[in-house]
Amino acid sequence: GGGAEAGVHTGRLRTGLDPRAHRIVYDQYRADDGDPVGDELRLISEVDRAHLVMLAERGIVDPARAAALLTTVDALRAEDFAPLRSRPMPRGLYLAYEGWLVDRLGQETGGVLHTGRSRNDLNATTVRLRVRGPYGRLLDEVAELARVLLDKGEAYRDVTMPAYTHGQPAVPISYGHYLTGIAGGVLRSLAGLLDAGREIDVNPLGAGAVGGTSVPVDPARTADLLGFTAAAPNSVDAVASRDFVLRMLSAAAVLGVLLARTARDLTWWTTEEFGLLRMADDLVGSSSMMPQKRNPFLLEHIQGRSTSALAGFTGAAAAMSTAGYTNAIAVGTEAARHLWPGLADTTQAVTLLRLVVDGAEPDRDRMRDRAREGFTSATYLAERLVVDGVPFRTAHHLVGETVLGALDGGTPLSDAARAHPGVAAAAAGYPADWLEPETVAAACAHG
Description:
Strand order of the largest sheet: 1-2
Strand content: 5-15%
């Protein structure tokens, strides 16, 4: 095993797992499916309250009947819909709910609730209301991750490390520069997520089944009551479209790729072989068999959960592509169901990465040593020769020979440069620390 229960100390680890990480990693085994019936009824009744207010204000429904319905709906909400939970639902949740209201208040009152409305525009509305919570939580977590990355980037701006290409030391940068680079990608994903959510601010009510309604409803009023910014301009599009499902999952999938790539870097850098980062005891796991282990297993959870949105996008797009452009179960139900795990898993992956970045400490000496041992200042040395008038390809060859000489002689790159006949003249004019990785990183920093 690679995990660690919160509060369980091992001989190797002094603390248990961070409770925030524990909830994400382990509480899934104890969680149930929540209360889908109650959740959906709360959304339906929220729409009903706005719809009834609008119908009464427009004189479409007698205010006394609307008031009786509102009182009964509010009482049902207060009881957590207990009278409905054992009621048969042979034709679905909404009709069982409406049927209970008719039984309670009579056809003359209970039967007016659905005036000027279809389950099609109702469902298109409730799904938009439902997504507000998980979408908002994802936005909050992404913004918080960006903040932590930028804060740590500033804190570690002078911690020099090797940047890697093809898994090999390349050039010196700072750990802070790496983190702010990740922050740039996170902020782009935040912008993409914000753009993807614009459709959920549009109110579908008034679209009816697909062609609107002759009842003089006021979609702008229900939009205002439900917190939408506008009414849908086209009834077909209002009930047919769940584009926001694809757009949100697509934006989350792009973010997930960045999360997984970052987790891959950090996983390598926390190994004993690299030794560049050390994670606190409350962010690693132990082994059930091997006493010495400190497993950065949260990074593996990040890599796994960050793929959920991509899988969800594929499933949702495949489901939608089977339907014509009208109300369709394949779109409104089967495609939309992929949104919830996609958003939830991505949010959890973001939270885990934030905890890891916040709690991982760079080994400053090891980072600097690896930058030296990897001859990461070689490109800078070649560019100094270019400044002195040497063609770059010639300089590239000369510095390659210099690196080989440093390896053969077991000497620093600066000593090998002064010993190479083609490089010595250029090297002579610089101070002793001119090829130190931190000096080069400061000279070459971009952004």
